[in-house]
Specification:
The structure holds two protein chains of two kinds.
Chain A: E1 2-4, E2 8-12, E3 18-25, H1 29-37, H2 39-45, E4 52-58, E5 65-72, E6 75-87, E7 91-98, E8 106-116, E9 119-127, H3 131-140, H4 146-158
Antiparallel strand pairs in A: 1-2, 2-3, 3-9, 4-5, 5-6, 6-7, 7-8, 8-9
Helix pairs in contact in A: 1-2
Chain B: H1 2-12, H2 16-27, H3 32-36, H4 43-55, E1 59-61, E2 70-72, H5 74-104
C-alpha cells in the first residue's frame, strides 16, 4: 500500500517484508550523501523529534560500522550496525539493530539518485525478517500513542 | 495479540484485489455477487478474499436475509491508515531537518577534505 504526499512516499511491499521511503531534496547527491556520512551532520537531523542523539561511532565506509543512542526523559535506546557497501553519492548498504532486541536485524539500502539541477531523489529500503516485524517496525515509528492505538484496535476487533 | 491483529490488517490490504474491494465497500455495502462482478475470477475466489478481510476485522457480513451484504468496518481501516500516516510524518520531520542541514552546508562540488582516519 502506498500513502504519498508531495513530500514523502512510503510503500509497504506486499511480497517481501520491506518498507520503502522516497523523498526528493534540493541538493546534489554529493551533498545529501555527505549529510549521511559525516557524523556531525548526520546527528543534526537523524532520529525522532525531541530526542537527544549521541553518536558513539559513525565510520561510514565499506566495512565500517556505527553505534548511536537516543534518549528522552532519561530513557536510552541504542542502535548499531555495519556499513556493508558505501559508494560516494550513490549507495549505502547497512545493517540496523536495536540493542533492545539484539537478534533482530534489518538490511537497509539508501540510493542517491541524481535528478539533475542540483536535485536528488533518496530512496531508502528496510528489509526485515517477517511481516510481523515489518508492521511492528512501522507501528513503532510512532512511539507516542502506539499503545493506545493497539488498545483501540483490540477494542475495535473485539466488537 | 494486537501486533498480530495489525499485521493481519496490513497483509489483508497487501493484495490489490482486496484493496479494490475495500475501496468499493467504502462507498456502499455490497453482496458477494456484486463484489465479484468486475473481476475475472470465480465467486469462490472472491469469497476467499472476503474471508481474509473478515479475519482481519476489516469487513463484517450481516446474518440477516440471503443477501448478506458485506460491510466495511471503516474505523479499523482508518486506524491503520493513521498508523502509516504517523510513520510518514515521522520520516517527513526527519527529512525536513535534513533539508535544513543541506541548506546550511557550503555550496561546493568538491568533496569535503578528508578527515583524520579512514572516514571516507
Amino acid at each position: 500500500m502506498t500513502i504519498s504526499t508531495h513530500e514523502v512516499e512510503i510503500t509497504l511491499d506486499p511480497k517481501v517484508p520491506l518498507v520503502r521511503i522516497t523523498r526528493e531534496f534540493d541538493a546534489s547527491p554529493e551533498k545529501v550523501f555527505r549529510a549521511h556520512t559525516d557524523p556531525e551532520l548526520f546527528s543534526q537531523w537523524n532520529g525522532p523529534n525531541g530526542m537527544e542523539m549521541q553518536v558513539e561511532r559513525h565510520d561510514c565506509h565499506t566495512g565500517g560500522g556505527y553505534r548511536y543512542g537516543m534518549s528522552r526523559d532519561g530513557e536510552e535506546y541504542w542502535f548499531h550496525g555495519s556499513f556493508h557497501e558505501v559508494r560516494p553519492a550513490e549507495l549505502i548498504v547497512q545493517t540496523f539493530t536495536w540493542e533492545g532486541q539484539p537478534d533482530g536485524v534489518a538490511l537497509e539500502k539508501l540510493h542517491f539518485e541524481d535528478l539533475g539541477d542540483g536535485r536528488t531523489r533518496l530512496t531508502g529500503t528496510s528489509l526485515v525478517d517477517s511481516f510481523e516485524d515489518r508492521d511492528a517496525f512501522v507501528a513503532s515509528g510512532m512511539e507516542v500513542g502506539i499503545r493506545e492505538g493497539y488498545e483501540r484496535l483490540d477494542e475495535l476487533l473485539a466488537r | 495479540m494486537a501486533a498480530d491483529a495489525l499485521s493481519r490488517v496490513f497483509s489483508a490490504l497487501a493484495d490489490p484485489t482486496r484493496r479494490d474491494m475495500v475501496a468499493r465497500l467504502a462507498v456502499a455495502d455490497a453482496t458477494v455477487n456484486e463484489l465479484a462482478e468486475p473481476y475475472d475470477v470465480t465467486l469462490q475466489a472472491v469469497s476467499k478474499h472476503l474471508k481474509v478481510l473478515e479475519d482481519a476485522g476489516l469487513v463484517t457480513r450481516t446474518r440477516e436475509a440471503q443477501r448478506r451484504p458485506v460491510h466495511l468496518e471503516a474505523e479499523v481501516f482508518d486506524l491503520m491508515t493513521k498508523w502509516i500516516e504517523r510513520y510518514r510524518r515521522e520520516a517527513e520531520d526527519r527529512y525536513r531537518r535534513l533539508d535544513d542541514v543541506l541548506r546550511a552546508m557550503p555550496d561546493d562540488d568538491h568533496p569535503t577534505p578528508p578527515q583524520t582516519g579512514a572516514n571516507r
